Predict the 3D structure of the following.
Amino acid sequence: MTDDTLNVRAEEARSQLVYELISGASGLCLAVFMWGHMVLVGSILFGARGFDWLAGGLEDYYIAQPTVIFIIVLFLVHAVFASRKIPAQLRERKQMIRLARDLRESGSSRPVPGSDYVPFRPHVESMLWIWQVRTGMVILVLGSFHLVLLGLDVFTPMFGMHRGIESATTLARVSGGLWPLYAVLLLCVEFHAGVGLYRLAVKWGVGARLSRAALWKIEHVLFWIILGLGILTLVVLAGWLDPPLAFLLEAAP
Ligand code: HEM
């Protein structure tokens, strides 16, 4: 192999490493932000007063405005660099669908005596990656819609009584018809972020002393806790349940 080829290969490998670091780091930041976001939206469990107090504070101290811009940029950077791994050609997509079907059926099919048919061995990690891609695509559409809506809330008086996030507007929108969209987005983000963090830990050897099974268990616990909090928050936002912690603020002046 000539030196030129070696240099080209080395250059290619370096840029792939940089892309991997960008998609991983942006995914990690987004996942950590999503945990914080769950607490922020979860303030509705304390009622409209709790929600408006927190949202108002974040806007009055100019924390919300730059955060919205930063998350939009991070979201787009992650989508661009992470989606380099998504099969682009239709032929490749069809192959991925076939692989997903074979993996789904794997474990149930048996070798056929006298034929050279070899059944697919179950491979959870490959199945996780396929669903990582699928949930990523859903988040790209629904997440973009949500980010535009929140951007309009924070920077324009288009919705509600004034510029800024208001519980009255959010409650009206979610109960008025957006709850199915947020239910799908919640499930996709929690799955995608959870599996993403697990894959990052495995990929970069984080918690190297922990086995994959242990890392997978931690991911499962986090997934169900955050999903549970998310579903409770969505049920309150949709108006199906009164804010369970509102009584704590009733006593407050
Ligand atoms: C709230 C939004 C999102 C969060 C929290 C998030 C989080 C993550 C994390 C933590 C990873 C693991 C990184 C790695 O394996 O290197 C990841 C991977 C990935 N994400 Fe996202 N992501 C989000 C949105 C998106 C969007 C909008 C897309 C659009 C296509 C996307 C596509 C992907 C893909 C394809 C991978 C796998 C990359 C690989 O195998 O290296 N993600 N995501």
The CA atoms of residues 85 and 133 lie 9 Å apart. The chain has one domain: 21-106+119-245. The mean pLDDT is 89. The longest helix spans residues 3-42.
